[in-house]
């Protein structure tokens, strides 16, 4: 027993420092990304849409840190401004998916019976659909654009939240905590919103943070295929598509926005991993 306690005393502080470091690193990177998007007019050295044909496809230099693209536009400025539509698209998707997923999962888990069966079968149908393929189909019908892209990606992004919320609600349904609330006359919508929802939110936040990296890649995929934000607006996916045409000779045109996508995905993945370690009780917190 003494040895066991000694090991716990040695491991726990190290694990706690690792969790704090992961969360702090991810949160710092996300803060940098958000500030870059907010302060884009102050940080960008050039107009992101200004074309200078005489300066097209210039390599990275002291004037153009990331080089220029096929229209002579400064890539650093376009990468900075490209953070704006990406973060806006991600925010729209989260606003649409988290409430729908939580509402579906909590109602299904709390009511049970035929309501649960119907809601979960609908969830399974959407869960089986490939995200990007369905998003492409919907965008081709609705038309390219930021809002349509967000709606298309949100349509197949909410089922994991519903599944997780249902599982947690089922575990809580017969708990002493909810039994005490029912004894006080709290039932129905008031019980779900005031007692079940707060307990499901931490895991939903963690799942949202962990899924943001995939959402960013899907959004970039829409832009790469020309179904996202339309030119000349700076968007990382469409910039990679432009750079892929000259990737063997002018590699920096695709590398600059590709690096930005990698940075954003890494930032949210680290944040999600840190939040999971911090909020999940199974990790010893």
UniProtKB/TrEMBL annotation:
SUPFAM superfamilies: MetI-like (SSF161098). GO terms for cellular component: plasma membrane. PROSITE patterns: ABC_TM1. Keywords: Cell inner membrane, Cell membrane, Membrane, Transmembrane, Transmembrane helix, Transport. The keyword Transmembrane helix applies. The keyword Cell inner membrane applies. It is a multi-pass membrane protein. It comes from the Bacteria. It is found in: Cell inner membrane; Cell membrane. Pfam families: BPD_transp_1, OppC_N. Its main location: membrane. One of its GO terms (molecular function) is dipeptide transmembrane transporter activity. The chain crosses the membrane at residues 20-44, 87-111, 132-157, 177-197, 209-230, 250-270. Residues 83-272 form the ABC transmembrane type-1 domain. Belongs to the binding-protein-dependent transport system permease family. This is Peptide ABC transporter permease.
């Amino acid at each position: 027993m003494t040895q066991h306690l000694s090991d716990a005393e040695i491991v726990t502080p190290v694990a706690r420092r690792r969790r704090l470091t992961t969360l702090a690193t991810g949160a710092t990177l996300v803060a940098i990304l958000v500030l870059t998007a907010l302060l884009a007019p102050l940080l960008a050295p050039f107009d992101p849409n200004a074309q200078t044909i005489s300066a097209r496809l210039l390599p990275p230099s002291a004037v153009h840190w990331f080089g220029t693209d096929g229209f002579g536009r400064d890539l650093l400025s376009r990468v900075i401004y490209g953070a704006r539509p990406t973060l806006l698209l991600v925010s729209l998707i989260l606003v649409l998916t988290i409430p729908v997923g939580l509402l579906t999962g909590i109602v299904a888990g709390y009511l049970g019976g035929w309501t649960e069966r119907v809601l979960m079968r609908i969830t399974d149908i959407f869960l089986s659909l490939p995200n990007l393929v369905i998003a492409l189909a919907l965008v081709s019908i609705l038309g390219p654009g930021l809002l349509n892209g967000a709606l298309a990606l949100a349509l197949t992004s909410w089922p994991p939240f519903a599944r997780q919320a249902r599982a947690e609600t089922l575990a809580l349904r017969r708990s002493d905590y909810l039994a005490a609330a029912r004894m006080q006359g709290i039932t129905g919508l008031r019980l779900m919103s005031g007692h079940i929802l707060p307990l499901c939110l931490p895991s939903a936040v963690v799942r949202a943070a962990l899924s943001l990296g995939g959402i960013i890649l899907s959004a970039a995929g829409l832009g790469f295929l020309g179904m996202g934000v339309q030119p000349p607006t700076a968007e990382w996916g469409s910039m990679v598509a432009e750079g892929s045409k000259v990737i063997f000779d002018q590699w920096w045109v695709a590398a600059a926005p590709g690096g930005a996508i990698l940075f954003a995905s890494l930032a949210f993945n680290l944040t999600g991993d840190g939040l999971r370690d911090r909020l999940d009780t199974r990790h010893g917190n």
